[in-house]
Design brief:
Strand content: 15-25%
Distance between the termini: 51 Å
Number of strands: 21
Structural class: alpha/beta
Largest sheet: 9 strands, mixed
Bound molecules: adenosine-5'-diphosphate, zinc ion
Length: 434
């Protein structure tokens, strides 16, 4: 496998030089926010800190955390660290509850973001000459524009399709010779299914790689997408508060996402607010080192994963994060058991004949929580006898009981009957909250 590097010096820098850059940039960002953002100055003063106390990464743990509520409390622009006249772009997260969290970028920030997305594209082997179809949504959501700028920066031919309109996606994919698809994994699955239904075989396409992110997906889902589209399906991670896509990106070794550490410091925080060592799972937390519009100190993403500093065969020295196991805000508590939708996905997709479309419905009957898992049967299984279908149902229920420790009622649906997504899939309905 041949690896290409967008910025080889940075991407393969020895760890002690990388650390020296982080030390210097951390001192700089702390000084900037202390001077320009009353929120950070107050927080640091309450903790008895001045910028001089933060000499480098070794002092990071002294700084207070920042949480999503802090962004809400200072909605919309209260955490910006530059005058609004220097902000050239504003994004926001979807904000399913209440006000969205807003993020502001200076032109330097947009430039650095493009740079990091360009590195990420190179991780996937995407370069000049590639045809990159961006099927992430364009708009306040960072997915579309983030991928767009990165793909342009490497000199690829960019098709700014945005999400949705699957028939047109398929037509352009074939006619324009798309080599690279950027979208959510659930939308990639949706496109693959539509191609199959339309009788478009993969030899008519030039697709070679997918840059998929913005939602959790299981290893099994990766396998299914890779088989269906004949590509390498790679994971890209980011969030609007911290930047957008390209905070980290998987290389072709597919062993986790390299976090661009010259721009971000990642930590994993445990349940008692302690910093956990590499290898342990907890709340992924970022400090931005080079953002000027809206820097963040120790921002708790609520995304759960682990970090590793084991060397990667690709030669990049930046640490990697494992796949996101779930978001603490997505965790369901069902009869006292903590359940992540991703665990259920893992069980379902491991069973032959189950299509990668499902819906999790949680409700309450009297004092008891109920869990219903709706799954689509594959067309082949539809013809099975009632007895065979009942055996499959009990197999899934037993496996969920063993692996996820909850009882679920499994309901089979017709192929194609569950809602498909063209962005982030919504797979959970929690009626207890309605
Ligand atoms: P929101 O989803 O809160 O509206 P964003 O649109 O900024 O905010 O999306 C960021 C979130 O999307 C991350 O915090 C994370 O939960 C999820 N996400 C992004 N990339 C990935 C990925 N590769 N795997 C799993 N989850 C991801
Ligand atoms: Zn690598």
């Amino acid at each position: 496998m041949r690896h290409i590097y967008w910025n080889e010096t940075m991407e393969r820098m020895d760890r002690s030089s990388l650390r020296a850059i982080q030390d210097e940039r951390l001192r700089d960002v702390v000084r900037r926010v202390y001077t320009n953002v009353p929120f950070y100055r107050d927080r640091m003063q309450q903790a008895g800190l001045t910028p001089a106390d933060i000499r480098g990464v070794q002092d990071l743990h002294l700084l207070p955390y920042t949480v999503k509520q802090d962004l809400r409390d200072h909605y919309p622009f209260g955490l910006f660290a530059v005058p609004q006249s220097e902000i050239v772009r504003i994004h926001a997260s979807s904000g399913t509850t209440g006000k969205p969290s807003v993020s502001g970028y200076t032109s330097g920030d947009v430039d650095r973001w493009s740079e990091l997305m360009a590195r990420s594209m190179y991780c996937a082997g995407v370069t000049r000459g590639d045809v990159v179809q961006i099927a992430y949504g364009y708009g306040l959501f960072t997915g579309g524009l983030g991928a767009h700028y990165g793909a342009e920066r490497v000199g690829a031919s960019v098709i700014p399709m945005s999400g949705g309109n699957t028939a047109r996606q398929m037509m352009l994919m074939e006619d324009f010779g798309t080599t690279t698809l950027c979208c959510t994994p659930s939308y990639a699955m949706n496109i693959a299914e539509s191609l199959r239904e339309a009788g478009v075989t993969i030899d008519r396409l030039k697709l070679k790689v997918g840059v998929f992110g913005a939602e959790t997906w299981s290893p099994r889902m990766r396998y299914l997408i890779e088989q269906a589209l004949g590509i390498d399906a790679l994971n890209v991670y980011g969030l609007s508060e911290v930047m957008g896509p390209g905070v980290s990106m998987e290389c072709l070794c597919k062993q986790g996402m390299h976090i661009w550490e010259d721009h971000f410091i990642a930590e994993i925080i445990g349940e008692n607010n302690e910093t956990l060592p590499y290898g342990q799972e907890g709340d992924l937390t970022f400090t931005t080192l080079t953002k000027h519009g809206m820097p963040l100190l120790r921002y708790r993403t609520h995304d759960i994963c682990h970090l590793t500093d084991e060397p990667c065969p690709c030669g990049r020295t930046h640490i990697r994060m494992g796949p996101i196991q779930g978001r603490t805000d997505d965790m369901l508590i069902i009869r006292g058991v903590n359940v992540f939708p991703s665990q259920i996905e893992h069980v379902l997709l491991g069973i032959k004949g189950i299509e990668p479309n499902y819906m999790i419905v949680v409700d309450r009957e009297g004092a008891l929580d109920t869990l219903e898992v709706q799954v689509e049967l594959s067309a082949e299984l539809l013809g099975d006898t009632v007895k065979e279908i009942e055996a499959l149902r009990s197999k899934i229920q037993t496996k969920l009981g063993n692996d996820v420790l909850v009882h679920a009622d499994v309901k089979f649906c017709q192929p194609g009957s569950l809602v498909r997504s063209d962005g982030k899939a919504k797979r959970v309905v929690d009626r207890r909250k309605m």
